[in-house]
Amino acid sequence: MSVNAWIVVADQREVGNLIAVARSLGGPVGAVVAGPRSVAETVASGGVDKVVWCHAPDDAPPEASARAVADAVAADPPRVALAGRNPAERVLLGAVAARLNAAVLTGARSVSLDGDRTTVVNAVFGDISDETVAVSGPVALLLDGGSVPPAAGPGAPIEEVTVAPLGMKVVETRTHGFETVDLNAAHRVIGVGRGVKAKEDLALIEALAEAIEAEIACSRPVAEGLNWMGKDRYIGSSGAHIAPQLYLAVGISGQLQHMVGVTGAETIVGINSDANAAIFSHTDYGLVGDLYQLVPAITAALK
Amino acid sequence: MDFDLTDEQQLIREAVREFAQTEVAPKAAEIDRDHRFPSEFLARMAELNIMGMPYPEKFGGAGADNVSYVLAAEEIARACATTSVVLLAHASLATFPVYKFGTDAQQDRYLHDMASGRRLGAFALTEPGAGTDAGAGTTTATLKGDEYVLNGSKIFITNAPFAEIYIVFAKTDPAQGTRGMSAFIVERDTPGFSVGEAEHKLGIRGSSTPPLYFADCHIPQDALLGGEGDGFKIAMQTLDGGRIGIAAQAVGIAQGALDAAAAYAKERVQFGKPIAALQAIQWMIADMATQLDAARLLTYRAAWCEDNGRPYGTEGAMAKLFASETATRVCDRAIQVHGGYGFTESYPVERNYRDAKITELYEGTSEVQRMVIARSYLR
Amino acid sequence: MRIVVAYKWTCDPEEATARPDGTVDWSRAKPGLSTYDPVAMELARRLAEEAGAELVGVTVGAKGVGAPIASKAALGRGLDRVVIVEDESLREAGRSELAAVVAEVIRHIGDVDLVITGDSSVDVAAKMVPTVLAGELGWPAVAEVTSVTGQAGALRVERAIPGGVQVLQISGPAVLAASADAAAPRVPGMKELLAAARKPVELLDLTALKVPPAGAVMTVTGRARPERKARKGQLIDTTDPAAAAAELVAALRAAGAL
To answer: Are residues B49 and B162 in the same domain?
Structure first.
């Protein structure tokens, strides 16, 4: 079997979208996994045709298997290699791309095979433009991983490879105490921006989130500079891309770098005190005003 | 004619803007409200080599040009007028005389510490009876053996008592008027030299400007800066450069107020739309921006003249005159754009308005600037 | 220890606009150091201060990246020297092409113990150049790095993982991509900025580097403004917050969003 598309996986199971895209290209789909065996098993039963599991020592991070992953893919070179937007996956895909001498694209909206060319519609420059790119030769794509793939029939065979890891090992792990979240699974999400002035004010947002059963997310400045919540809650071009039923942007200016993460939302509501804020060109319903009055008012109106 | 800044000037402006906006601006309201001397920023500006920016590296300065110094002063003033005057009084007024007129021994003793910002300086010219008429000072310095004895008082002395080094102007020959004035370097804890109560002011409230008292204050003979009788000339030359810095301060204060007014106009909704959509507001902003840019260009031009060995006395006076009057006008309009809210402490423009006024008064009132400018045209 | 900091001189897409035909208008944009590169420089400086190291800046790109102001901006942030490949043929280069050029530059510099890069560039934001570079060099790579300490051959690297921080020990040369908030870059001092003009700048000729040709050629065959889901754009009057809230809730219920 000559693999047409290889999916590169580290230790995250959320590869449903990668499998769907790979399958859409036609031809055999392989997955190489550098993480726990349980991840390899989830992927194997998620709809791929073969799995190579890179078995490294317990204290080796996924990145330590980068060369082994590249070897596995190079042994059966594909038209397309795909990986999810996570740090370890990016390292593995980078090794694969270097080995295959592949073109790398990270904003693919769609990909198709046309004869000996691969055509990718690729979003560029913070999503202000789409380029249609024809590639002669192998392509490595970074995409949203999607959700954990449900079991789809009997699993594909898993070939185990023992890895001689690159010189790196995990010596310590510390948790920061922020609850992790799967924003992709949330039907309703409230995004918090710099319009919220103090960490204590998140209580207002939490009250509303509870009232509508929403997850709380944030823009980049809040995720990074302010450290009010885990970085897995950051929505934006280099963060989470979600498509919930409802996205409520509170105190968010609406720059494209954030909005690109929620363009798929069914309904977008924006609350901002600046009538000229970019958010209002992306909303279904916009409220120009003081969030400190409007958010509690909305929470009350829901009772 | 090249209106571009050099690479270094651009990078310096960006770096000082980064410092001013991220570190100084968040504290400006508190510094004003608490009348607090911003010693933490004095230390930071020393760390960043801003305190002696225009002085050569061999003397502990940064070796930057005057345009760069002006850019830095403007960016700091945009964040906090108080912090900018601490810098300007130190670098332009106190350090310049030592650099320009000091003996090797005096420079060895004081210049490195001042240019590096390790020791803060102050410039003591003004007296209760001698403001615009700077030559009318009655503080005396009498030579007794190998010491001078100072008697008299000074008023509105920026940076006292935090400053350790004071450039003090006193009459060695009162009968000669301005030609009888001399300049001295006096250290803070000299017996007979005391600092009075802080002055409560309309603006730049964190800037400490108390009176100084000299009562039989003995200083060594080699504390004389320049020759006997050179004092007035030293003071005037120092102020020629100093006023370019004040022009930069005025530009910075006005820019902060203009930024605030523009942001407010985009946010404030009345009659169903932001007031920025109203022509009355648009015209106010246009006038403010234009006058401010003119003030800025005059200021940069004066600094450029100083950097390029051209005369800069008249140019500096024009810059200071126009920039200071522009600043008060811009800050007044900025409050107007804010309406009633502009009158409250919730918005920064009332502080900008109070801070701007001093630029029309110190380092030569607008009237003095007009005298200087007129003289160059009507000679 | 020799540390290379790879940086980019480019424009922020916030200052660019897309024309109706999908091409991008950069005319109002002013180039600068890519937003997160100073974070990488800060991490490199801290390591150099602790361990003693030479800091070498590397940048590759089209005409403009070798402009004196670009080099001064980088050198003013603590680098000892910079090595630049400035070639117009790189203007449309993809991530892997750029990574291949950087790899050759690193081989040319020699004895490099560590490469540190920013999280991603402000304009392309691919997050892939450092990882492909590591693949080209055959070195370990780690992204989302929040701190790096230690010595050449014995680096202690902290990196963000979901839920916390993981500490790794790396025994050989590596490529590290700093997380965007790993450190607050220190403000450059005036002396540093003025001294930048006196530090060495080495311009390398691209053809002399003998970079292997790209294995996959990309051709842009079309451009368009992205189709965005049409939004209602309805503004709710907020003069009375309670009334606005009621109106919003009713609208969302009717739309099936609540």
So the answer is: no
